[in-house]
Each structure stands twice: as structure tokens, then as C-alpha cells.
Design a protein that fits this description.
It contains 1 helix and 11 strands. It is mostly beta strands. The protein starts with a helix and ends with a strand.
């Protein structure tokens, strides 16, 4: 009989302790479950560097979502190198042009002659047939990742006199 009394007393004390912690025996709890959401930043699938007249252009190292202007004297050659496979889109002063190797892109006395186009490199020679506008002629080259087309980088090559 003592054993049952002890169990009953222990249960009564435990109930009192639990109810005492609740502020009187009843409690309403509005619990909001917060689940942390991990926002994954896409890993860059490539970066771009540039060479002009065979020399690496310092300060040019673009990653997706970046854009950079590079000034180049007409008559120079250039090469863009990508660390991952990309598709190249070329625009002159904002107008997209399709210019395969062996063709000539001409705009306001500036000429661009693509010499190599692969999924890792874009190279061209430039020249001018007369004076260029004072602001130069902008040749934009956009690299779009072949493994993640949402990743693009753009180099604006401003050809000057």
C-alpha cells in the first residue's frame, strides 16, 4: 500500500509542477515553425580573360553577371578566353550581328574580322578605314554558359582612334 501511495504522490507532484509552469493549468500556444531556407548561389560556370596583341589585359577577369568596358586602339587584335564552354553573341553599338570566321563586321569606319570562334575562345583582328567617332565604336561580346544559360558575362570593346 505504501508503494501505491508513493506513486500517486509522485504523480500528483509532477502534475502540479507541470501545471504550475503553465500559469494555472491551461495554456494556449501559438507556435510558428521556422524552417531555415538555404538560398543556393549558383556556382560560376566560367570566367573570361582577355588578350590584346598577344598580351594579357590586366584587370580583365569577368564572371557571370559582370560587364566591363575595355578600350582598344583600332588596328589591334584581341582574344577572349573562357574557362568553361560558352556561346558567343556579338553586338555592334547594340545591334546583334552574326559574323563567322572570315567575315567582316563594319561600322562607322571600324572593322572587326573574327579569326577564331570556339566554345572557349573568341579572337578577332580590328582596323579602321577612316577616323572613328570620338566616343569610339562599341563591340559587345557576350559569353553565355552552355551548361547554365542563365549565366552570362559581357565585355564591351570600345575601339578608338
Amino acid at each position: 500500500m505504501r508503494f501505491i501511495t508513493r506513486i500517486f504522490s509522485a504523480a500528483l507532484l509532477a502534475t502540479a509542477a507541470v501545471l504550475g509552469g503553465c500559469g494555472g493549468g491551461s495554456a494556449t500556444v501559438d507556435a510558428e515553425v521556422v524552417v531555415p531556407v538555404a538560398v543556393a548561389t549558383p556556382v560560376a560556370t566560367f570566367d573570361l580573360i582577355m588578350f590584346a596583341n598577344g598580351q594579357r589585359v590586366s584587370g580583365v577577369n569577368l564572371f557571370p553577371s559582370q560587364e566591363q568596358d575595355v578600350y582598344l586602339v583600332a588596328g589591334s587584335n584581341f582574344e577572349l578566353a573562357s574557362s568553361g564552354p560558352v556561346a558567343w553573341t556579338v553586338a555592334v553599338n547594340g545591334a546583334v550581328v552574326s559574323a563567322p570566321v572570315g567575315s567582316v563586321i563594319s561600322y562607322t569606319n571600324a572593322n572587326v574580322l573574327p579569326t577564331l570562334i570556339t566554345n572557349a575562345r573568341y579572337a578577332a583582328n580590328t582596323n579602321r578605314s577612316g577616323p572613328l567617332p570620338s566616343q569610339g565604336v562599341v563591340l559587345s561580346v557576350i559569353a553565355t554558359s552552355l551548361s547554365d544559360p542563365s549565366q552570362e558575362a559581357q565585355i564591351n570593346i570600345v575601339l578608338t582612334n
